[in-house]
Amino acid sequence: MSTVIKLHDITKMYQMGAEEVHALRGISLNIDRNEFVAIMGPSGSGKSTLMNIIGCLDTPTSGLYELNNVNVSEMNDNQLARIRNKEIGFVFQTFNLLARSDVLHNVELPLIYGGYGSGERKKLAMEAIEKTGLGDRAHHKPNELSGGQRQRVAIARALVTRPSILLADEPTGNLDSKTGEEIMGLLDILHKQGNTIILVTHEEDIAAHAYRRVRIRDGHIESDEAVTNRKTVVHPPLATA
Amino acid sequence: MQFYIDQVKEGLLIAFAAIRANKMRSVLTTLGIVIGIVSVTLMGTAIEGLNRAFNKSIAVIGADVLYVQKWPWGGGGNWWEIRNRKDLLIQHARAIERNAQNVRSVSPITGTGRNVKYGGKVVENVVILGTDADFIETTNANVALGRFLTPMEADGGRPICVLGSEVAEALFPVETPIGKTVKVGNYPYRVVGVLEKQGSFLGIASFDNRVYLPITRFFKEFRSRRGGIEIWVKAASATNVDETKEEVRGILRNVRKVAPGKEDDFAINQQEFFIQTFNQIGGVIAAVGLFITGLALFVGGIGIMNIMFVSVTERTKEIGIRKAIGAPKRSILMQFLFESAAICLIGGVIGIMIAFPLSLIIDQILPTAMPLSIVGIALLISVFVGVVSGFLPAYRASRMDPVDALRYE
Predict the structure, then answer these.
(1) Which residues of A touch B331 (CB under 8 A)?
(2) Are A72 and A8 in contact (CB under 8 A)?
(3) Which of A54, A109, B49, B117 could form a disulfide with B366 if both were Cys (CB 3.0 to 4.6 A apart)?
(4) Is A181 exposed, middle or buried (0-12, 13-18, 19+ CB in 10 A)?
């Protein structure tokens, strides 16, 4: 299996006033194509920093980060924007949809920045929306949708450019547990369809959907193991969308 | 190419969505630009009116007429030397008439001020001009009633006169003036004609508050000594005025016996002088006026900048989202530049819609029309103001760190 993410001895240091904060103290981690990994850790452990670096929102202070064998640790802002657009799909805890735009436009947005023509954009966006079970909601505004539906829109937006990795940061944090289960079920299906999924969470329950669990503490990897008691969603969620 | 078109489309879409979402704020912000554009366009319209008024009255002087006088227009030279110059005489005018090739007509002119009376009516301080029959040709004046002086009458010095339109209206509101005898100063003159209205020069000196007499008669009754005239020369063609000027100069130097190498002892004045002077003064008026009204626009621009900073801060999260899904810096920059340019352009359009009816009011006072060019310039300026005042906020937005921006609540 080919390796998508190669982190080698990544450190990240922040200047907080006069104090230096070591958020990451040497993280080395490989993630292969079509893995479903949960990154866990309490708040302050550095898992958010790690996610930002993996998501190319931030660059490490030192260390090497190769995404699809391309060194991204020393790229400039615009190069990183391009990588984020092409290779990474974000799913956030707070959905982060554009409130004034309808579902279709929200999902189209990465394609606009990716330079796709308008016909192709519409086609790809509708495909992604249908994949997440919101085909009949394409022209609704986010405030006309439920939390679970909004997260599906966010997932559709993350998928639309066919990125190398899907990076989900506490995707169920703002949802009730039943809807959360549905979203996890959707991620599970996407994983089975061949997507590489990295899930950042502090909930054991949610992490149990993944196949591999990486625990972070104080900027180190505390453990990295296969999930033994994997949880699967019994009911396929798309039927009830 | 497609990429840029889509970026522009997306930018405009966001801009108008943002303006719609903050209607009240957009209206208030735009107001600054509206006021700025209204004042700038009205100023431009007023300046246009000034130019038109000037061009209209300067036309009375005639671009192709040379005014040979002792004193140069606009001063300069040695006062004492000019004061002691020999007077210009009728025979000098005759010499030009005889010898010049590039001349259409030559008129000796001299004048004074007198009251003019008819019946019980008096017009005070009328300009009494003594001239000859060619005057009508030289000045492009038109006869409204009767006729102008004939060469015979002019040279013979008979007591006849032609009235300017103002004088004629004042003395003869109802009856025809032709054949009536008016008193110019203390002397009776029979009216043979009335001139059409000629207008005034720069609103100061009316060309219609005049009475024209044969120059020979004028000397008899209004000036004891002979002399002290001006010579007005109309060039044969308007494109050859300089050649005419040189010719007239040569003839005059000859008849006035100016030794070679010595300076002229007369001045040949031209309309050009007034045009140059006006262009200088008009330029200063325009610069000061546009500067002051431009300040209004500048203040409007500051308002835009201020509100764009607010807009950027408010939408930090949105900027973060856009960056996370791959918007490059220049897309974010363009998005906010479009927004401020759109606000300003709307302001410019509204401003012109307000300024246009106001310009019609100005037109009642000072005949003018809003020049089409100023409409285009105003729209360009408003977009320019938008881009300039939007730049700093947009630049700040484009430079935001995506991690911080996403975390912003």
Answers:
(1) 113
(2) no
(3) B49
(4) buried
Residue labelled with tokens 């982060």: A96
For chain B, domain boundaries: 2-57+276-407, 86-265
**Over the stretch A86-137, which tens digit does the pLDDT of each residue have?**
999 999 999 999 988 999 999 999 999 998 888 899 999 999 999 999 999 9
For A163-179, write each residue's pLDDT tens digit.
999 999 999 999 999 99
ipTM of predicted complex: 0.92
For every residue of B181-203, DSSP letters joined together read EEEETTEEEEEEEEEPP--EETT
| Tens digit of each residue's pLDDT (9 = 90 or more) over B1-33 | 667 777 788 888 888 888 888 888 888 889 999
Q: B209 with B200: CB under 8 angstroms?
A: no
Say if residues A220 and A27 touch (Cβ distance below 8 Å): yes
CA distances from B17 to A145, B23, B206, B343 (A): 20, 10, 60, 12
One-letter amino acid of B239:
T
Least confident piece of the model among B271-275, B279-283, B320-324: B271-275
Q: Which amino acid is at B181?
A: T
Q: What angle do CA B38, B48, B199 make, to 5 degrees?
A: 135
B323 vs A81, A118, A157: nearest CB: A81
Alpha-carbon gap, residue A212 to A29, rounded angstroms: 12
> In 3D, which of B95, B133, B396 has the Cα closest to residue B254?
B95
Measured CA to CA, the distance from residue A76 to residue B399 in angstroms comes to 12
CA distance B320 to B336: 14
Q: Do A78 and B329 touch (CB under 8 A)?
A: yes
Is any Cβ of chain B less than 8 angstroms from the Cβ of A162? Answer: no
What are chain A's domains?
33-60+75-240 (3.40.50.300)
Q: Flag if A84 and B321 touch (Cβ within 8 Å).
A: no
How buried is A173 (Cβ within 10 angstroms: 0-12 exposed, 13-18 middle, 19+ buried)?
middle
Contact A11, A19 (CB under 8 A): no
